[in-house]
Amino acid sequence: MTNKNIRKNKQKLKRKNDLPKLASDKDFLSAFLRDEQEASADKTAEQAPADTEPEADFSTLLEAFLKQNCPPRHAPKPMPLKRRLKRYPPPEADLDLHGFTAIGARVKTRSFISNAHVQGFFTLRIIVGKGLHSEGGPVLPHVVEDLLKEMKKENIVLAYEWEGRKKSKSGSVLVYLKRFDD
To answer: I need a labelling partner for 25 at 20 to 30 A (CA). Which of 2, 83, 102, 131 fits?
Structure first.
């Protein structure tokens, strides 16, 4: 009978992952207090008598650590404009300015772009025509381009490009609105 009791005691003391197997709350409390006493005894043994300085603030210790071990981080380079424009969707809204005078086209274009910016559009198409039927040559492409330059300075327009890659060959311009800060 004593062999069975010894086996039970040995099984009770076996540790799995360095944790004791416990049978009741009393065993848990005694194991916890014993571990706590051992830890406090280890701490007092490790402390040297020269360690009597007052503790520094956590923030000052953290700053000193970061200065020693972490090189300064550089801000990531912004994405190039061409690559950024490739991510923009195809034109989401169109404005046809055929038949407008220069002043009317300017007012209509400004209100169209402002409303589209408020509505959250990314890409617009403004059709100005080639000016083939005008007496003095094309007027609207120059008026719209000047307006787009102004709105670019106001940070509403990110970029614009003529659809045929050349103003004289194209009758429309693609406008990319600025949606995010750099």
So the answer is: 2
